[in-house]
Structures are given as structure tokens and as C-alpha cells.
Amino acid sequence: MNAIIMAAGLGSRFKELTKHHHKALLPINGVPNLERTITMLQAANITEVHIVTGYLANQFNYLQERFSDMHIVLHYNDHYADYNNRYSFQLALPFFGDSFVIDADTVMRDNVFTDVPTESTYLTVLRTIHGTEWCPQTNQDGRVTKMLVTDQEIPSMSGISFWNKSTATIIKNAFPQYATLQQLQEKRFYWDDIPVAMLDELSIGTREVKSSAMYEMDTQDNYQKIQELLQED
């Protein structure tokens, strides 16, 4: 089992705040956010972590020494400014399977990695900071059949998902048809679009975690709000 952390992005919505500091390494209660995440992975005995970097990639180098008792692998995306994150995910594709996939801007309060699903699963959350989100819809068997993009107050993707080997293999085999040069250059495409396009072929469930378990650090305003929410910890 391993974790794949997507951390190549520019964080442009943070403006001056991320001009010299990568968004994933902004401090939460004095600790860089990505360190918090890796520490939780370590506590859950997940010691192989693949981090896809791009913008300000050198700022992540210290993590290999900081977590020297883990297997921290950095994969550099040299096209982070001109390709979408499908290219980032492609760099980690050989290691995809029995994997947690984590958006680096996910700020965690609770360690959700200690309870490993047996099937591929979107971890969902009912957000306290509202906006348009991707919301998995399931049938009576609990299988995801549709993805809504909506501002409705319903459970949405949390930024963390788990993919077992069988589901990952299907996605890996299909990946090249979703990663042509034209598709990689289309900024509105994400790696997450690929399993959504294949829902008829995949068995994916959901697991809702409590709204205080994790937050999305997406703008300066909600970064400040998250800081306030976590100050009591």
C-alpha cells in the first residue's frame, strides 16, 4: 500500500502568498501542511509516499530527510505550467494500486488513513465552507454511478480517495486514451475526470467522514478560516 500526493500546482489563487512558498507547505498551526499529512500516513503504517511536484519543486526536497524512516519519492513534473494534472498523475501511474490519492491542499484534522477500504472509495465530506464541488452519487448498492458538479449542500469529494489494485489496473490500461497531447494541454481536464468517464466499468464506493475531519485549502480566505478552525487543536 502507498500514497500518491498531487503537489505540482501553481496555487495561483493564493496570489502573493504562494509567490515564494508552495501552497502545500504553508503552515497549519506552525507545521507545513504536507508534513501533517505525511505524519498521519506514517501513523497509519503507510510508509511509501509518492509526491508529484512541479512549481517550487526544490522546496519539497527536505521531506526525504525529515521522514528518513519512510520511502518518500519525489516525481518532478517539468510541464506543471502548461499541462493539466493528468500529466502529474501519469508520472505516478506505475505505483498506482492499493493507493490513497491525496490532493496536497487537503488539510487534515483527523487521521482517515487508519481505516483502509477494501474497495475503491471516494472519501466524501459535507463542507462547512461552501462552493461548487464534485459530488459522487450512488445507487442502492452503494456504487458510484454519476458525478454531480454542484453547490448543493450534499457530500462532496474530500480530496482523498482510495483505489484498490483491480480498479487501478483498469484505469491504468485506459489511461493513454485520456492523455493525448491535446488532452494534456486542456487546462479544464483533471485526472479525476478519467474514473468518472469510466464509471460503468468501475466499482467505486463512497465513505463520508465528518465535516471537521478535513478541509480544502483553496484560497487565501479559506486558508485563514482553516487556521482559525484548527487553532484550538
Automatic annotation (TrEMBL):
InterPro entries: GlmU-like, MobA-like_NTP_Trfase, Nucleotide-diphossugar_trans. Residues 3-63 form the MobA-like NTP transferase domain. It comes from the Bacteria. Keywords: Nucleotidyltransferase, Transferase. One of its GO terms (molecular function) is nucleotidyltransferase activity. The keyword Protein biosynthesis does not apply. Pfam families: NTP_transf_3 (PF12804). The keyword Nucleotidyltransferase applies. This is Protein LicC. It comes from Furfurilactobacillus siliginis. The gene is licC.
